[in-house]
Amino acid sequence: MISSLSHTFARCAVAVLAAALLAACQPGHDASSQAESRADSLIDEAVKNRQLDRVLALCDSLEALRQISPIGAGLWRGWSHHRMRKYQQAEDYYRQALEATPHTAADAENQQLAAGYLADLLYIVHDYEGALRVAVPVVNRLEEQGNGTNDAIIMLLSSVGRCQMKLGRLDEASATFESAYQHNLEAIRADTSDAKLRNAIVHTGNVAIRYLNVKLFDQAEPWLGRTEELLDRYAQRPDATQRFVSEYRARLHIYHAYSLEELGRHDEAAEAYRLYQASDYFQTDDGRSDACEYLIAAHRYAEAADILAELDRMMEQWGYQPTLDNIQSYLLPKYRACKGAGRPDSANAVASQICEALDSAIAWQKNSDAAELATIYDTQQKEMTITQQKADLSHQQMMATAIAFALITVFMVIYLLYRRRVHRQLQEAYDQLEQTTTAKERIESELRIARNIQMSMVPSVFPQREGLDLYASMAPAREVGGDLYGYLLDGHRLYFCVGDVSGKGVPASLFMAQTIRLFRTLAAQGMQPAEIVTRMNDALAEDNEQGMFVTMFLGLVDLQSGRLRFCNAGHNPPVIGGGQHHGDFLSVKPNAPIGLWPGLCFEGEEIESIKGKPLFIYTDGLNEAENASLEQFGEDRMLAILRALNFENSRQVIEELVRAVSAHRGGAEPNDDLTLMCLKVEA
Fold it and tell me: Which of these, 617, 578, 612, lies nearest to 680 by C-alpha position?
């Protein structure tokens, strides 16, 4: 169950490591790097909070705006997929970052971090030789140059050491860990910040855990002592985080208890365990779980079995999947504890649970691998399609230029030398022009395909969260449309929007893609709806020579209190449930659409609570849907259907209205995109 200790140890350490690594890769603060600094601060915040979807969205938006380099984008995309356990995609992004050419010091540092993260990933998938091939050359180069960041060197040395340990090269691993420790000491001498010292504590403690994992207890003890010394040093700081100190010290007590027990120093082990029991951390689920390895080693099976009786509840709370590692870390110790405590019925029950979990683990692993391969294939197909479109577009442009030049040359020669054949040659020129027009239409067709790929940014998976029911759908009328919707769930705050871009064709689809990216980027910064709409308006109105605009309803609901803050920018007013009529149009202020005039200040509104009241938002493709006689569906018909519905869930509402619109059209072609969203916060 030492791997269990490693898991909880990692949960404590991740915030410290992320903060330190991000600090290491910050660029300089000269005037030319202000945009990059702002981009780094956005990604920094998302990484610290482990908001993986937000990190990916920021990488997409900031790379499109050229505020983050391809190396930085590859690094943080890999980091996000790494944390999602999508290892193959993470490896691909890390290698993209490593293969790119660095142009700045920040790029070089990001490549060092990418090498460290890739080595860590290869270790996880048991490719120890592969991890060494990635990490060792980078470490050697940094040591020779003397200009690598301490954090990158320490992370790489840590990966090298544990791979050497797995390969049985213990003497080499010991030397590597010692080198990493000396780098840590140099780092905290050069940088006395809170994060740097906490980072050193985490790395040093990790070395001790690695020795515990392979049961080299005599070598684990000195590293636990070093960790205690660093922790004592940190605890004396006036800005020390006491919760970190208390929890970390408690964990060191239980590590000591387990190690000393295995070394036969039973009294010292019992004293360390007594100190552990006196800590606040011991009262938590994680704390009680961490005690079991010592209790089993000390043959205190009954105490371990009592703790592990709640294992199923704890694993469900932690969100652990039925993997082989989790079976080994949790279910096997539970079986040993029950058997040692003389509880045969419980031991047999756990044995049956292990057998069932093995089947689930194998199935889960296959499904996980299949899902990742499907995602990788889909991503590669999209990238190949976009690349081919760009190549075809460039080829067509070159062909058009060559044809135009050839036509002009031929025309001039003919005009000067063969005046009588002018008419025939002009006819040939018109024929060539028709071919050019055909090529242009082909390019537009390919751009429509690109727009369909952009439309994949609209979410098709909705949050499965207790107390929240959200569903939306969008049906473009033709191959090119301009409707949009989106959402962003940030803790207990849910941002959502529905919009309708003016016009049709490729410009509308590109305007739509820009709008949805702006929504995701600005919402991720925690702004209020009115401020988001105001900033979107300023960005979209700039150089908007075609006068395009988008109507939008944008809301922010607090899932705990039910308070709804919203801003309606020229969009159809939503319908809110409840009230005397069981549904009425929401009263909204008449703000202008987004993108027409820069400098507008949009007004926001709020409702104290919408708990228990379904909120339905739609585009005019619903109320203006026409049948063959050009009769519109109408708002009255829509309102009557909503009032008559016995609300079961948001998806039922959407599907009922889609069926009603289809029946109204009676086979007539759709005259506009149809986008619907319904959400309900439970009371």
Answer: 612
